[in-house]
């Protein structure tokens, strides 16, 4: 049996072609898809360079620590949103779910349940919203956008009802330790966020469930044909999203020293922005965990740098918006 | 995908050299020393509430103008909006690591800046709390030392509004209260002050309109429809007061229903002059900002500040509205600045 021979023109390597380490970088950098794929890490490094030149404070250990602590909540929410978006869904109720978790923590703390039990109440409260989302979408066949828009309102109302519209001040030494304690420059919030990110990465890329999440987002028909229980996967991702929102609630209460019933929509918008920056396709099927984490760091670094430079509050949302729109444009060039 | 080794290698090939370059540049830039004192003797940072509200814009103007007059180096940052508690904390955390000698703080809630302030206090930097007080228990837990609190007696401001409405309508008349965000300390104090002063009046409804004009407009429209014999509204801020004025206009009840609010923003003063709002209790955020900056100067000069400084308030009705507009943003009534003596020492 003869071996097939390759036909077509053979390429000769030019004598002056770059080689070694530089060649792959230059070769890839010529392709728009490379910039699209690596938008978040390249953008983050670019920001670090610019801000470190413009502000002597930006890369001081104190500021790096402050930035990482500030990014922790957004990282957790971005990881949560990544699971949902990978299935082709979206969780618009995530910040309201976090608020419900925060109020749950506050009420449990007020009732004298202590730090650990109050934390569990926070996660459990959030999981209720996640379960409602999952059932509405997977079993009730309600569009994710409409379902989570509805639960956003429901969760907002519940938070106000249970707290009587009043912030619950939490003076806790454990929470103070959680928010101000650190190992070197790494505050406990960012350590917790990174652990969550690592676990999420493992679940998404090293388990059968993760494979099912990606399959459900790619083509539900094909996924079902291959034995994936798509409705169950959808319920699971909304539960994961809500559970992580509950963990974020704990970090939020620690950060602001109170369980506040008013929702902060900035977290919702920014976590979706971080996911987009991280290269996750909003149409689903394409999973990323590290990307959204870097996206969250990029958005935090951007706000921090602009603050250090004394840029007016009016211009800061504009800058964030431009970065997100640019990232969204770049996703057109990603390799499918 | 980030999960594949090839992508990781591609990412690292780009990120590592660029990261090394960033650190190299940072090493160069960190050599630049920054002078901790401006011409006035103190480098000041201010973190205030959202600049989407004219009250806090006037406060910012007060800080800036006082800094320009006295030659003080000041950096002002604000929250994205009145609910952005964590965002405001992030801004303070970013500024806390810089070489500011004094921090002017206007927190969204009693606790949201406590964690960042503990860092400021530990570094031995002065903290001047303006407008909204920091929760004293939370401050004690975090070992935060507040140099002084500068702000309006919100209960007294609400009381002035209550006294005025009580003088304008018959005893037992139906009135409604529109507060800010449910549970907000400032709103609660103003409402409590109003209730205490308006004891003879019947409060038919109290609702929260999140400090927003359009929310207050909707709420007031509904209240007027449900209570056609309503005689007056009290709003915890001017923006909501102007929303109520619009609802009264829409119901063709202008002149019949008394509307009084708190703040003394320019558009509210103009509304009073035009016969829209009946009155506003002017708070002078400009003066609060100015006093905050001056307090930092007093600290820089090594003087001791009083624990609390009450900023002025005044009831602005149609007869004094023109004068108030002419003097805006300064107080139109004379007030004794307790820091003047300390600044001239």
TrEMBL record, chain A:
GO MF entries: transmembrane transporter activity
Localisation per UniProt entry: Cell membrane
Keyword Transmembrane helix belongs to the record: yes
Keyword Transmembrane belongs to the record: yes
Ranges that cross the membrane: 39-58, 64-85, 115-138, 145-163, 183-204, 235-256, 262-282, 289-308, 314-333
Membrane topology summary: Multi-pass membrane protein
Protein name (record): ABC transporter permease
Organism: Cryobacterium melibiosiphilum
UniProtKB/TrEMBL annotation, chain B:
Main localization category: other
Domain Periplasmic binding protein: residue ranges: 45-303
GO MF, any single term: carbohydrate binding
InterPro entries, A to Z: Peripla_BP_I, SBP_2_dom
GO cellular component, one term: cell envelope
Keywords: Signal
Signal peptide (from-to): 1-31
Cell compartment(s), UniProt: Cell envelope
Similarity comment: Belongs to the bacterial solute-binding protein 2 family.
Listed name of the protein: Sugar ABC transporter substrate-binding protein
């Amino acid at each position: 049996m003869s071996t097939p021979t390759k036909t077509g023109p053979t390429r000769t390597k030019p004598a002056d072609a770059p080689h070694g380490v530089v060649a792959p970088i230059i070769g890839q950098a010529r392709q728009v898809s490379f910039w699209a794929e690596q938008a978040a890490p390249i953008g983050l490094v670019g920001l670090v360079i610019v801000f470190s030149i413009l502000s002597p404070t930006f890369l001081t250990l104190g500021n790096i620590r402050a930035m990482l602590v500030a990014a922790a909540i957004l990282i957790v929410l971005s990881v949560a949103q990544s699971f949902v978006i990978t299935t082709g869904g979206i969780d618009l109720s995530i910040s309201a779910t976090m608020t419900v978790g925060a109020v749950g923590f506050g009420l449990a703390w007020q009732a004298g349940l202590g730090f650990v039990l109050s934390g569990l109440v926070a996660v459990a409260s959030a999981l209720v919203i996640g379960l409602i989302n999952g059932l509405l979408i997977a079993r009730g066949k309600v569009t994710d956008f409409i379902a989570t828009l509805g639960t956003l309102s429901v969760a907002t109302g519940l938070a106000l009802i249970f707290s009587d519209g009043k912030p619950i001040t939490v003076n806790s030494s454990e929470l103070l330790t959680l928010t101000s304690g650190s190992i070197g420059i790494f505050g406990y919030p960012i350590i917790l966020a990174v652990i969550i990110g690592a676990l999420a990465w493992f679940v998404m890329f090293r388990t059968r469930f993760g494979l099912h999440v990606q399959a459900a987002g790619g083509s539900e028909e094909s996924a079902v044909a291959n034995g994936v229980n798509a409705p169950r996967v959808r319920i699971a991702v909304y539960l994961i999203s809500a559970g992580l929102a509950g963990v974020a609630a704990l970090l939020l209460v620690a950060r602001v020293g109170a369980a506040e019933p008013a929702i902060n929509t900035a977290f919702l918008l920014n976590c979706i922005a971080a996911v987009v920056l991280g290269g996750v396709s909003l149409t689903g099927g394409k999973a990323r965990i590290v990307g959204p984490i870097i996206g969250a760091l990029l958005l935090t670094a951007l706000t921090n740098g602009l603050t250090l430079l004394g840029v007016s509050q009016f211009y800061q949302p504009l800058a964030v918006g431009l970065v997100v729109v640019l990232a969204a444009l770049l996703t057109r060039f990603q390799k499918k | 995908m980030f999960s594949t080794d090839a992508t990781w290698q591609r990412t690292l090939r780009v990120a590592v050299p660029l990261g090394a370059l960033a650190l190299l540049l940072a090493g160069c830039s960190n050599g630049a020393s920054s002078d901790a004192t401006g011409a006035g003797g103190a480098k000041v940072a201010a973190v205030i509430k959202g600049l989407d509200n004219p009250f806090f814009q006037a406060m910012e103007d007060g800080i800036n103008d006082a800094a320009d007059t006295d030659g003080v180096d000041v950096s002002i940052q604000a929250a994205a909006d009145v609910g952005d508690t964590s965002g405001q904390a992030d801004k303070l955390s970013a500024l806390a690591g810089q070489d500011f000698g004094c921090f002017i703080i206007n927190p969204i809630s009693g606790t949201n800046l406590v964690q960042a302030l503990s860092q400021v206090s530990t570094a031995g930097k002065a903290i001047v709390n303006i407008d909204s007080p920091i929760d004293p228990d939370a401050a004690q837990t975090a070992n935060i030392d507040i140099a002084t609190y500068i702000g309006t007696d919100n209960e007294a401001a609400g009381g002035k509004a209550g006294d005025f409405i009580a003088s304008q309508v018959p005893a037992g008349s139906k009135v409604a209260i529109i507060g800010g965000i449910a549970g907000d300390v400032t709103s609660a104090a103003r409402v409590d002050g109003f209730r205490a002063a308006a004891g003879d009046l019947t409060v038919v409804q109290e609702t929260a309109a999140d400090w927003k004009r359009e929310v207050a407009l909707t709420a007031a429209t509904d209240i007027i429809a449900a209570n056609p014999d309503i005689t007056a509204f009290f709003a915890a801020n001017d923006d909501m007061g102007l929303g109520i004025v619009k609802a009264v206009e829409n119901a063709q009840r202008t002149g019949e229903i008394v509307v009084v609010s708190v703040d003394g923003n320019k558009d509210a003063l103009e509304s009073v002059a035009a016969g829209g709002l009946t009155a506003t209790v002017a708070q002078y955020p400009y003066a609060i900002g100015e006093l905050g900056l001056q307090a930092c100067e007093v600290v820089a000069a090594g003087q001791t500040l009083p624990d609390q400084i009450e900023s002025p308030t005044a009831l602005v009705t149609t007869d004094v509205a023109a004068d108030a507009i002419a003097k805006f943003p300064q107080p139109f009534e004379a007030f004794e600045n307790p820091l003047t003596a300390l600044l001239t020492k």
